[in-house]
Amino acid sequence: MSNQFLFADEPVQQQELPQDYWKILIVDDEPEVHAVTKLALSDFSFLGRGLEFHSAFSGEEARELATNHPDAAIVLLDVVMESDDAGLHVAKFIREELGNRFTRIILRTGQPGQAPERTVIVNYDINDYKSKTELTAQKLFTAVMSSLRSYRDIISIDHSRRGLEKVIASSTNLFALQSMEHFVDGLVQQLSWVIGGARQTLYATAGRSPNPEQMVIRAAYGEDADQLMNQQIKAALPKKVLPEVDKVVRSHGIYYGDDFVLAYCPSQCRPQGALLCMTGLTRPLSDSEKELLQLFADNVQLAHDNVTCLQDTDELLAQLVARLMELEQTHVAEQLDKQSAYVRMTHELAQATEMGAARVQQTATAATLYERAERLFAVMDNQPATKVSPCQERLKRAVRPLHMAESDVAQIAYRALNERLERWDGLGLPAGKQGEAIAMESQVLVLAFHLFKLAQEDLTEAELLARLDAERNRHFAPQLLKAVKQNLSSLLQKARP
């Protein structure tokens, strides 16, 4: 090995590496190569991060190392080890078997004739080819630096793509609370990678509280993101950032610190807006990045406010539903004969199942809601398969106040609407529930509606019984169909308006 590559005449000062590191895998069967590589790159730093080295001395060890470290930024890979093409097999393993397209592979060989550069570059997905005899300390430094920049950009593009996917997926259904959270989370991820260099990006809101002390993290990206969700923002920020939080909230502005940024996102429908925090920045932001941050602060809260207003409407409707169900339950109990034919049939069938007087009354009252909502679902049933999903989203949005209402009656109706396509044999939709996993109240409401529709077809009792027998152990509980058969005449009388 040449003295030029050993760098014996170049003094290298050891220094403490930064907190975060770029992972470098060194794969070579010569221990000296590992030693001099680490020595040559010991003072290397890129974006405030040093290098973390992991060594393998054979192709087999390299496969294990690459499997255990999928986040490695660079592989410095020898070609000739236990075989003349061992390194090439490792490169193929990383790309094809592990599916790792991010790690940069720099091929280093002391015997270029064994693996000609043109052949290797064309046939293998590697990113650079170096001869050991020509690889000086400076050239190694340059190769690693350029590869790290490429790796950073590729990861940035991938993270930006994933963030954009979240935004697009959530934008199709911004009316759902969970979708709104994914929407904001996607924007935060996008912002983190478009600006770049932040170890942590947090987005916090105070809800209905006018007190900024109550701001809670709703979206997080970077270090400890999962652990920080739903924690108070001040408990998650570094101490040096805390004095600036109140100033930013009071001024409704943006503060740029040495390695952090705080941005207030004003709200039009809540006492307090939101707070965007980016910490651990490795460099000052450019003017264009500051403009992007201002654009984010001004506009992300508008989207959040729109959904917040819808949530407020849902809560109001849920309260109204709960109150109306109290009144409706009294009305159904006192004037059952004045209810619709479907409600009367539901009451009759519920009684036949011996589910108890209170549950019978609640189920009959739930029928007043189910009957109205079923008309909406009938529209979905008539749509082509390609249009069912948008319809389902629209209907979920329409009946969400039922789910939110603090009312047993509303919950019975909501569950029945969700279980209307479930089957006793487990072949239904959307969850494939089977047997008693489907609520008896749901089965009563669905079967009563089915029977009510059949009664409008002017069928004889014998024909109705034949239809019902065909459903035994398929769509409905056997004991429920038995109750229908025993009370069929009475039920059909109720079906008359």
Provide tags for this entry.
497 residues, alpha/beta, disordered N terminus, Beta-Lactamase, phosphoprotein, 3 domains, 10 strands, Rossmann fold, 19 helices
Report on this model:
It comes from Aliidiomarina soli. InterPro entries: CheY-like_superfamily, Cyclic_di-GMP/3'3'-cGAMP_PDE, DUF3369, HD_GYP_dom, Sig_transdc_resp-reg_receiver. This is Response regulator. Residues 23-147 form the Response regulatory domain. This protein folds into 3 domains: 3-155, Response regulator (Rossmann fold, 3-Layer(aba) Sandwich); 172-310, GAF domain (Beta-Lactamase), CATH 3.30.450; 335-494, Hypothetical protein af1432 (Orthogonal Bundle). Helices cover 55% and strands 11% of the residues. It has 19 helices and 10 strands. The strands form 2 sheets. A 5-stranded parallel beta sheet has the order 2-1-3-4-5, sandwiched between helices. Strands 7-6-10-9-8 form a 5-stranded antiparallel beta sheet, with helices on both faces. Helix 4 (86-97) links the parallel strand 3 and strand 4 (104-109).
Order of helices and strands: HEHEHEHEHEHHEEHHHEEEHHHHHHHHH
What's the CATH topology label of the largest domain?
Hypothetical protein af1432
State the secondary-structure class. Answer: alpha/beta
Spatial order of strands in the largest sheet: 2-1-3-4-5
Q: Main beta sheet, described?
A: 5 strands, parallel
- Count every beta strand, where a strand is a DSSP E run of 2 or more residues: 10
Specify the number of helices. Answer: 19
Task: Please indicate the percent range of residues in DSSP E strands (runs of 2 or more).
Answer: 5-15%
Shape: elongated
Q: For the residues shown, what is the average pLDDT?
A: 83
Helical fraction equals 40-55%
Question: Architecture of the largest domain, CATH level 2?
Answer: Orthogonal Bundle
Distance between the termini: 100 Å
Report Rg: 33 Å
Number of structural domains: 3
CATH homologous superfamily assignment of the largest domain? Hypothetical protein af1432
- CATH class wording of the largest domain: Mainly Alpha
